[in-house]
Amino acid sequence: MADINQVQFWQDRYDNAQTGWDLGVVSPPMRAYFHHILSHVNKDIRILIAGAGNAHEAIFLHELGFSQVYVVDFVSSVLDNFAKANPTFNPQHLLCHDFFEMHKFDVGQFDLVVEQAFFCAIDPTRRDEYARQMHRLLKDKGQLVGVLFDCEFVNSPPFGGSLAEYRALFEPYFDTDIMAGCYNSVKPRAGRELFIRLIKV
Q1: Secondary structure of 17-56 as H, E, C letters
Q2: Using only C-alpha atoms, what is the Rg of the chain?
Q3: What is the 3-state secondary structure (H, E, C) of 103-132?
Q4: Taking CA atoms, which of 1, 67, 92, 177 is between 20 and 30 Å from 164?
Q5: Is the pLDDT of residue 138 over 80?
Q6: Nearest to residue 198, comparing CAs of 185, 180, 183, 179?
Q7: Which of 139, 112, 73, 135 is closest to 197 using CA atoms?
Q8: At 25, phi and psi to the nearest 5?
């Protein structure tokens, strides 16, 4: 397998339209969550979309009025395309970095990090590094919220996992508020997704 830790692997995926992870819209579980938090949080909270790809979540939050939404991806072409398609989105909030190197740059910390089809794309040997980096990037009591696959795949990426694995992985870094099966997944993913809301400890 080509090195999934390198930009070129993912650039080739975009170039060849091998983007089956991309629903083309915000997933129903995340859409429901975003609408839920509207009445509970200040719209100035700092939000990061990690490994954002086409960043449907970012523009959705932006259009809901959240002013401090940031996008990080190390494939520059997807960020360029996003900027062209969404001219009202602050271009300074488009961060072309390797997620695992973000702490080396002056990006600050975030109140909320959104996980959508990023965790399943990274090398599984880096999952503890992912958890540690999320902990580092979040403010005290900051939240990691999103969707993880609760299944295994024959061909990867995406890479699957299980509730038990995720609990063990995140326990040293986060309190688990929610980690449960999604009730509103798109049909092809029904019964194969977990919604998570983890709070930094």
Answers
A1: CCCCCCCCCCCHHHHHHHHHHCCCCCCCCCEEEECCCCCH
A2: 16
A3: HHCCCCCEEEEEEECCHHHCCHHHHHHHHH
A4: 1
A5: yes
A6: 179
A7: 112
A8: -145, 175
- From residue 17, how far is each of 62, 103, 143 by CA, in Å? 26, 31, 32
For 3-27, the pLDDT digits (tens) are 999 999 999 988 888 887 878 899 9
Q: 77 with 11: CB under 8 angstroms?
A: yes
The string of pLDDT tens digits covering residues 19-50 is 878 788 999 999 999 999 987 899 999 999 99
Sheet holding 94-95, edge to edge: 94-95, 69-72, 47-50, 110-116, 138-149, 193-200, 174-181
Residues 108-132 as b/e (b if ≥16 CB within 10 A, e otherwise) read: eebbbbbbbbbbbbbeeebbeebbe
Structure tokens at 91: 């271009």
Spatial separation of the C-alpha atoms in residues 177 and 86, rounded to whole Å:
33
Q: What is the pTM of this model?
A: 0.94
For 155, counting Cβ atoms within 10 Å of its Cβ (0-12 exposed, 13-18 middle, 19+ buried), the class is exposed
Q: Among 190, 169, 171, which residue's Cα sits nearest to residue 124?
A: 169
Q: Does residue 49 contact residue 69 with C-beta atoms inside 8 Å?
A: yes
